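Hey team,

Filing this mostly as a record. A colleague (T.K.) asked me to run one chain through the structure pipeline before their review meeting, and I want the input and output archived in the tracker in case anyone asks later how it was produced. No errors, nothing strange. Just documentation.

Input sequence:
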Amino acid sequence: MAQPVKLLIVDDEPVILKSLSALFESTGYTIYCASSAQEAIQLMEQELCHIVVSDIKMPNMTGNELLRYLKDINPMCQVIMMTGYSTMEYVVECLGIGACDYFLKPFSDISLLQRAVIEAGERVQRWYQVMQDTFKVGVSNG
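Output structure:
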């Protein structure tokens, strides 16, 4: 049986939260939105989301700091970073910390982000299936 995938979208711009939430409604994922890094951490601690799509440039906490917190809470979480401000060094650093993908805003092709989220969801489902098959027990998804 497939586990319900939980997707957390983090951005301090309400229009981005609303747009991405609407974009991913059709995936069947449970969608959560956070308008700050602190709110994202609280949600992650309560809901243990499987996928996070997060802006990097937000007030009070850098994207890399948030990424580290999220990976501490759930090391298997698939984190996709997005930003309008980037350097190659920052991309490499994010991927080194554990982001599974990185996108520049404004999106040149939103379907690429959508595909990255779907692929992350497929990975999560495979991992839960392997755990379930390996341990022959129900796997809690948080």
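Quick notes for T.K.: The beta strands are 6-10, 30-34, 51-55, 57-58, 61-62, 78-83, 99-104. The first strand starts at residue 6 and ends at 10.
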